[in-house]
Design brief:
Length: 226
């Protein structure tokens, strides 16, 4: 007579932990949105200074989000001995640091060049433009580098817009599209404080990232119609 299959019963503590992990991406989105709303008046008043002093906080927030909410490509889950758990956490922290470092160097340089090619001032407002590129890189590039590392096949799909939609890819696309749309109000006039460079670009990047990230979580597994 076959023995009935038994399934391990989940304890209330395990259920509570699982529920918390499921809500952490939304907590990250809410914190990011709340912080940007709070600093927006300061951003309008002094863009360069505001982007500079908020940069470490954004880097830390993205690093925590990566470690807590994202699973790296080909990263095997650790379980069993405490030693394996510590090694797994250490690997995630190091990978998150490297992703942030890549975003603030290579990613920022690439986005700065793109901003100039798309009409950003090349000889003036250099610091605000660099900081704008750095904020956008931390939003769009760092999570993708952390999750997919530098896997060539995956990055070809990402850069070609053919990657499977999930919150990192959708957030990155949203940040870049939002920054592009954010440039629209700038030529309309210079009589408004919020139209100064690069307030609308940064605002578009943050809004696009939050919207794209949320849509990627809601509709995973699809592909962009490109």
């Amino acid at each position: 007579m076959p023995t009935p299959t038994t399934h391990p019963r989940r304890t209330p503590a395990a259920t509570s932990t699982s529920a918390l992990r499921a809500t952490e991406p939304h907590i990250h989105t809410a914190i990011l949105a709340s912080i940007f709303i709070t600093i927006f008046p300061s951003l309008v008043y002094d863009p360069a200074s505001t982007l500079l002093w908020t940069l470490p906080g954004l880097a830390l927030l993205q690093a925590i989000y990566q470690v807590r909410c994202l699973r790296m490509l080909n990263l095997t889950s650790t379980s069993g001995t405490g030693k394996k758990e510590v090694m797994g956490v250490t690997s995630k922290i190091i990978s998150s640091f490297l992703a942030i470092l890549f975003a603030t160097t290579i990613g920022t340089t690439t986005l700065y060049v793109l901003l100039v090619l798309f009409g950003a001032p090349a000889t003036t407002h250099i610091l605000p433009t660099v900081l704008c590129a750095m904020h956008t890189a931390l939003l769009a590039v760092a999570p993708l580098v952390y999750k997919y590392r530098l896997e060539g096949r995956v990055w070809r799909e990402i850069l070609g817009g053919r990657a499977v939609v999930e919150e990192c890819f959708a957030g990155g696309v949203g940040a870049l599209v939002g920054a592009w749309i954010g440039a629209v109000p700038i030529p309309l006039g210079v009589d408004r404080e919020w139209q100064k460079w690069p307030v609308t670009i940064v605002t578009g990047a943050y809004i696009g990232y939050i919207v794209g990230k949320s849509l990627g979580w809601m509709y995973p597994g699809k592909r962009l119609p490109l």
